[in-house]
Amino acid sequence: MDVRLTSEQRQLRDAAAKLADGLGPGSVLDLDDARRRTRLEDAVAGTGFRELRSDGASGVEVAIVAEEFARGLVDVPFLGPVLADDLQGRLDGDTARWTVAHTGVAIDASGCDRVLKLEDSGVFAGPVGDEVAGADLTRPAGAAAGPWEPRGDISAGHRDRWLALALTTTCADLVGAARGAQRLAVEYAKVRSQYGNTIGSYQAIGHLLAESEALIEGSISVLWHAAWAVDELEPEQALRAARIAKIYAARAARTVCETAIQVHGGIGNTWECLAHVYLRRALVSAELFPVHLEEAGLGLS
């Protein structure tokens, strides 16, 4: 396994990061800015990021975009549409926007009108219903209650590889959210002063941030192995790698995001601080296609 990005993949990362930094919400108030979100939607639609898999992109390239979008709290659909694209491909003449269902909910469903669900090896399609209340302020969900129409069956290998991609992409989202929360905390620690010094100069704060950085680096390591495995290993092996990555990244991201709130002190518990938006996103991504230790072969005997 070669973890180095190609020049094209570095360009993809730069493009996704530039889009997220330029049009993603810079504050909680920005989440209600419809004009900004419309510009962001137009930009994402124009990139073709949602059709990466049918364009031949690898799991690594999907993870690159997912990570940068989470870091920048991109609040237009990507995760749901890109997984739907992998599940059914691009349909000729189809003007609908597709997402996927998880436990009866159409995820990442803003602006989506059709949803796919996978049951065993059968793919079914249905409408996206009314918005469903959820913790994530950046990715509204919709009801997925049918009626359902069969869209055919997929092979066991395709099913496992798709599940590996779904786990890896949510893992990338967790890593991105952790990176964004960590950046927020570090920047705050550089400017917030207590007793005549910036709080980042105090050992207690420095150690918290260093521990978060170590958790992020560990998450990056397991993420890139899982992303590489999506296309390079046998489906069963790819699925196991993705499950291990999801377990690690879900726990690490929650710790990093909660630490960011802690570093902010009292302001970290207010609505105006972006730290809770990262935590909300991480908590929801952790529960999308959740994994137990036993499923990854990591259960205690």
From TrEMBL:
The keyword Flavoprotein applies. The keyword Protein biosynthesis does not apply. Pfam families: Acyl-CoA_dh_1. Gene3D superfamilies: Butyryl-CoA Dehydrogenase, subunit A, domain 3. Residues 169-284 form the Acyl-CoA dehydrogenase/oxidase C-terminal domain. Keywords: FAD, Flavoprotein, Oxidoreductase. This is Acyl-CoA dehydrogenase family protein. It comes from Nocardia fusca.
